[in-house]
Sequence to fold (87 residues):
Amino acid sequence: MYCLQWLLPVLLIPKPLNPALWFNHSMFMGFYLLSFLLERKPCTICALVFLAALFLICYSCWGNCFLYHCQDASLPDSAHDHTMVGT
Fold:
């Protein structure tokens, strides 16, 4: 389980608030994971635990899945433009 210390923090990296950067973020994360798996060759148990955690996060549409943006998940309140309030 030593190799999980390099995989689990990847799940904690937040997606950017700007929707234009979501594609770049997902490509970076995908290439990071691919290069990590090819270079470090984690054990089967670690890879399965990581893939199960990634699947559960993406399946539940929790909002931190870097593979795609869920349709029912909205942007956080901090991402909305509040300068137009009151006009």
User: Anything to note?
Assistant: The mean pLDDT is 76.
